[in-house]
Each structure stands twice: as C-alpha cells, then as structure tokens.
Input
Amino acid sequence: RQSPYDLLYADGVRAYFARDWPRAAELLQRALHSYSQLREARRACQGRCAEEAGFAGSPGPAAASWETRFFDRVLQRAECLGECLGRRLGAEPSLHRASREIQEDFEQREPYNYLQVALFQLKKLDEAVSAAHTFFIANPQHLQMREDMEKYQRMAGVKPGSFRDLQATPYWEVYEAGVQHYNVDEYLQAAVKLEESLKEVLLALEDCRALCEGLQEDGTEEEMQPGLYEAIAAHYIQVLKCRQHCVLEIATKPGRVSATDDFIPAHFDLLQFAYDQVGNQALAAECAASYLLFYPADEMMLEKMRQYQAKLGERASVTARENIQRYVQRSLREKKLIYYALEHLGGTFNDPDPWTPDELVPESLKEKHRENQEKQRLKNLDVGQQEQRGPLTFEGITITMDSLQLNGSQRVVFDRVLTDSECKDLLRLAKAAGGTGDGYRGRQSPHTPHERFEGLTVLRALQLAQDGTVNWRDAKLLLHASEKSRKIVESYFTPGKRLHFSFTHLVCRTAVEGEQDGRMDLSHPVHADNCLLDPEGKECWREPPAYMFRDYSGILYLNDDFQGGSLFFTELDAVTITAQVRPKCGRLVAFSSGGENPHGVWAVTRGRRCAIALWYTLSPEHAEQERMEAEVLMRQGDTEQEQSYTDDEVHVGADRSGEASPEPPVPKGRARSTSQRRMPGSESGQQPQELQARDEL
Ligand SMILES: O=C(O)CCC(=O)C(=O)O
Ligand SMILES: [Fe+3]
Output
C-alpha cells in the first residue's frame, strides 16, 4: 500500500529542514517511488479500461438514446478506472491527487535536489551523485547545482559511472545516436537507431496521453457551477488539449525549454534518406509516404515519391506506415474538435504541430493561429541561440573562430570547406557567367559606385550550363558547395532541426579601376540580414521590407587576391566594430541573421572578391522554390551527361574529403535527389541503382 507522494514529499522536506538526514532521505525516496508507482498505475489502468469499456457494455435496447448509451460507456469507464486504481494503490484514488505545485516539483525533478544533499550528508556518495546528476539534467541552468556538480567531479572517490540519470528518457539517447550516425553518413546504423527511437517515442507518447485523462485542473474559482454538458465539454476539451500537448512533452529533452520541432515527421525525413542511401528503396518510399502524411504538399518529398514509384513499378503500391496513418488521423480528429470548441465556446489553444493543415483552422482563428506559429518559431530560435553547438558533420573542416573569439553571439568561422581547386572551378564559373552579359551583367554595385557587382543564382548557373555557356560540372559544384555549407551550418547551429535554403548566389565585387582614391564608402554598408537596423534607436526592426524569415546567414569565400573587402561585425550602433574576418578560399563565415549580428564589408579597392552568399530559414514555407527547380535541372542534366561521359569523368571512390578530386564527393544532404544516378565506382562504391532496384523486387 502506497502513501500518497505529496504527503511523503512534505514530510521529507520537513525532515530535511530539521537536518534529520536519514529520515529525509528515506521519505524523499519513498515519495519518488510512490510518484512513479502512481503514474505506472494510471497508465496501466487507463490502457486496460479503454479496452474493456470498448468491448463490455451491454448494447442496450436499440431505442436507447445516444445520451443513455454515451453515459453508459462513460460510467463504465469511470468505474473501471476507479476500481483498477484503487486496487493497485490500495487506497481511494482521490487520496493521490496532489496540488499543481507539487506535481510541477516532481516534473522538474525537484525532490532529487533535496535528496542529493541528504545522501551526501549520509556519506552515500554514489547515490548522492546520481541524484544530483538526475536533477541537473532537467535543470542545467541551476547555478548552485552547477557548482555542486563541479565539486562532485573533483571529489576523490566519485566514479564516472555515478553520474547516472535516474529518470532517463532512453529514446533521446537513441535518437541522438541515430542523428550522429546520419551526420557521418553511416546510414545503416542511423536507420537502426532511428527506428528504435521512433518506436520508443510513440510508446512514450501513448503513456503521456494516458495520463491526461486522470487530470482535472482544479482551481477554477468560478462562482457559477457549469451545467452538466458544459462541464463535460470543458473537461473533455481539456483532456484533448493535454493529449495534443504530449507531442511537445515528448520532443522536449530534459533540461531544455523548447521542443524539437516536428519530432515525429523528422524521424521519417531522416529515415527516408538513410534507407535510400543503403539502397532499400521500398522502405525509403514507405518513409517518404509517411512523411507526406504530415506535409502532403512537400514538393521535395513528392518528387522523391514519383521517383520511387517509377523505380519500384506501379504494382508495388507504396503506402505510409499504418500506425502513423492512425496517429495522424487521430491527431486531426482531436484538433478538429478543439478548434470547433474554440470557435463556439472560446478559449485558447497553442497547436503544437507545425504541420496542421490550414483548412482545419476555422477562418476566424486563422490569423491568431499564424501569429502563434510565428511566435513559437521565434521562441524556438531564441532558445536555440542559447544552446550548445551540435557536432560537425564533415571531416577535414576546422572551426577557426567561434562566437567567443568573434566577440559576439551566434557567429562562427569554418575553414577548409572547399579545396583550392574547387575555388578555382567556382571562380571560373563566375567568370564564364560574367561573360554572357545576359542576366549576369557586371552592373554597378547597388551599394557603391566604385565597384561592379555580379550575382549568379544556382538556377541560372544550371540554365547556363544547359545551353553550354558554362561548364556543367562547375555549375553542379555551386549546388554542392552550397548544400555542403547548409549541412555544416545546420549541424552547428540547429542540430536536429532542418534548415532550408532561402536564397543563394555567387557574388563578385570588382573594384572599378581609377575610382578608388580617397574612397570613403563601404563595399556593403552595415546591415542585419533579417531586420531593419536602426543605429540611433539601437534596435533592429523585424518588419518588411526585411527578409524576416531568414534565420541564418553564411558566406563561403572563394579567393583572397584583392585589396580591402574584409567582413566586419559591429554592435547595434553600426560603428563599434567587434570582429573582422578576412576572406580566403574555403572559409565559411556563418551567423544568425538578426540584430545581434550587424555586419558590413570594407571597400574592395583593387581586384575582384568572390563568394557564395547563403541565407537559410527554419520555416519550410519560406524554402526557396528555385532551388528545387535547379535540382531537377541537375538531375536531368546528369542523366543526359551520363550517356555521353567518358572514362575521365569517373573518379574513384573512398575520397571523402574531396581534397585530391577535381569534383567534390557529392554532399549527402537531405535535399539531394535520392534517385540521382551514380556512376559505377563513384563515391561510396555502391552498385548502380538500377541493380539495387532489381534486387529488391
Ligand atoms: O560578402 C560578405 O562578406 C557579406 C555580404 C553580406 O553581408 C550580404 O550580402 O548581406
Ligand atoms: Fe549581410
């Protein structure tokens, strides 16, 4: 028989303040145990009663009204729950209803904080450390505990194995292991881990939802008691909202404030690519179809689906996973009910899912819905900015300077992103395109009369390649280099979240000869990339015409044989310089696009300065359309080229860094077409895909 956890906790804390350590430790441990028993019992009973009430229940006379039938079921279920819980807990379930504050304390792992002190006083070092660690995981900003943890780490007699998380959510470890494998192109291991994490995530989600039903928010101090139906409706909607919220709960790592966006769809995004890479097209297609349940209009995924259909043949019907279909349908049903209630009964709802289709939201709530989504996105971004950096995806790349060395926040300089020969090829591309005059004329710079300014987009580059004006491989290299940069920036700044292209161009600034004496202006005046800089007000306005949706900026430099032209960062006043970056081949500078990073470019006073300028967004609806067109062109072109290519185009595998190769290994980004044909012997040395497809059928 369990005592209620809130009473045990209260007694434990009392003993703690009385410095009665043995009693405090014992009571706190019992409180934690009771709490987890209660949750376990709720889960189990919820599950059992959902099943039972579904099958039992006499059908009743056919004439019984829906009301009778409905209440029959409801009462049965309530009875079942009460009985089940009572039996498991050995007490009236209502005894186990704790106040909101206490519940929150347990959710925040607060009892472990008291417990670790008590255990430490009792000289139970190993247990004290694991209690402290368990608390710290969920409260990384807790300064006192940070100090304590450091002390524990230095203490003789503390084993590394003592730093255990007693409330570990195992799927996070598995998920992160999966993403790590994915990032280093170990797709087989990635798929195994991600499947495992997906399974655990879905289970955890059901657990979380089961706990919603028992929940009755008290403390609505309304004078008027609502009527039966209002009360039922209000409670039901509350349960629905709680269930919907579970997705965020599951996707929030302990100790983090914000959830990983689109956690479940992200699994399919990753799995699709991983399966594709290991040659399992059937599973890749199934994952693509599952992803499309969330984003039915996602062009990239639709295109992949078409390719899979074509490869696998019409007969092989590709369908989404059944459990995910059910998941999405159930979620949509719940959302519909909630939105209906909002419209007619009022209230608020923060939809946790970015994928909720627009049609589902009633007209009158759309504006608010969009505002909420945007707010959520910005909040995530803010939180993301405080978080530590993710692991780097590519070997051979170095981090030359981080935010600290660059005297600001969300800034980084990478080197060796491109090889010298790649820079040469890209410069040749810029030059060749510059010669065409059409669409890419050396115009006067929009920023200064002393420079010419040329910009070439990826789509334009491929179009020029198609009609033979520029080298096909150089144009492809532009796509690859920008994708490689995207992956680097994503893994560094937004690990686990997808970063989309917003705009990319290859841009050269050339000093106009004879117009440089006494020049006072800049090549690019100080600005921020996603807001309007107001140096007087020391503010940055996130409003049109700024590209508000741009979240990260990157500039990949191609050369250094020019005078002037360094990039510099300033404070919001636009004059206090905080850091400078000298361009050179293969150097990528990246930073968040907001008011925290005003920047400009010194005048280019001799020669020509070329770079690939890149902007990224976290919001899929602002992803660049041109990019996808360019990728389609690239694939088409590849197919044509393949037929006419000769031996010298085939480079032998194993060269992952691309150092020695004239053509870099194809970056394996998610955006890349998955059906792109490979030449025998290229890259990873796999078989051509035609063969793989046949093997599978
Ligand atoms: O080329 C550079 O170094 C910076 C360019 C830039 O800030 C921009 O185009 O927004
Ligand atoms: Fe800029």
Q: What stands out?
A: The chain has three domains: 5-166, 171-381, 400-645. The CA atoms of residues 28 and 362 lie 48 Å apart. The chain has a mean pLDDT of 81.
